[in-house]
Amino acid sequence: MNYDYLKIDGGMLEGGGQILRIATALSGITGTPVEISNIRNKRLKPGLKAQHLTGIKALADLTNASVDGLRIGSKQISFSPTTRKGGFYTVDVKTAGSVTLLLQVLMPAAIFTPEQVNLKLIGGTTVKWSPPIPSVQNILLPLLKRMGILTQMELITHGFYPKGGGIIDVKVDPVKKLRSIRLDTIGKIENINGISYCAKLPEHVAIRQMKAAISDLKGADFQNIEITTKQIKGGLSPGSGITIWAKTNTGAIIGSDAIGEKGKPAEVVGREAARKLLETINSNSPVDPFLADQLIIYMALAEGSSKIITNKFTLHTKTAIEVCKQLTSSSFSVKDGRNDQVEITCNGIGFENEFL
């Protein structure tokens, strides 16, 4: 069968896996066949890795797509979807590849299916270069709920580098249309919460991460702070992490996280998370820069005008906007504000789920 492919340069701007995830996700939703070249061209080892291949295979199942070029190391694929469907899907990266990055490619399409999508994702739950699961659960998903996205996520087992093995179960309900979102006023910080955790390590690692984060936050005159600790039983690899989030009276949820590494003291991990949170708060921005790039695809699909203010316009966010513009008729405006703020406005396409 011949397709009229929309050609996407996978090496533009950020030049990593994000282009692949957003382009194929939007292809699966809009039905536009895409040909993506120069995949991960700006990475040390370009081309598809196991996590990208696994995610695209799962999206192809979800959208009844035909795919060419799907092999480890491939720098070009074509993706041609037909129709979206609900049901149960088990997706195993078989490495410590991030399950949250799998979710980034699958969830946008899952919300526009005719019935609930149930995902069992297996891989890394707290790994470098991706949001840890506690961040998704406590920051991203509550904000997406305001846009009409209803999900349930259960963390079954944590997975750290190098063996992974983490498991999450996610249920995604279909929606007719997404509502726009406005996160443009920080307001007053009402409380700061978090979780500090470790696996196959002494409990004091999680406690020290927590105490260091609380100490720095209290040093910045924040008092209503509650960070719980957890020593995880089992797991394939040792690891630790901390996620903290601040809720405000305007409905914003500002987050940050840090991951433990060999030779990195627990106190440094805790202070790193606190520092990143304070940077966003001190700029009076209601959206942290790591959340900003995750929201872009949903803003593009939503009905009406969405607006967010963040404290850094990252290359990831810029790339997400560019891919959304190429695959949808959404329009974006980016303006500089005070205290290094960046204001991002989007007129979304109001994509409608034809199955509902």
What do you see in this structure?
With 356 residues, the protein is α/β, with parallel strands linked by helices. Among the domains are: 83 residues, Translation Initiation Factor IF3 (2-Layer Sandwich), CATH 3.30.110; 96 residues, Dihydrodipicolinate Reductase, domain 2, CATH 3.30.360. Strand 12 and strand 13 form a beta hairpin.
Structural key phrases:
single chain; 356 residues; alpha/beta; Translation Initiation Factor IF3; Dihydrodipicolinate Reductase, domain 2; four-stranded mixed beta sheet; 8 helices; globular
Name of the CATH superfamily of the domain at 187-282: RNA 3'-terminal phosphate cyclase, insert domain
Classify the fold: give the CATH topology of the domain at 187-282. Answer: Dihydrodipicolinate Reductase, domain 2
What is the molecular shape? globular
The unreliable regions are none
Biggest β-sheet description: 4 strands, mixed
Helix content range of the residues, please? 25-40%
Radius of gyration: 20 Å
CATH architectural arrangement of the domain at 187-282 = 2-Layer Sandwich
Oligomer: single chain
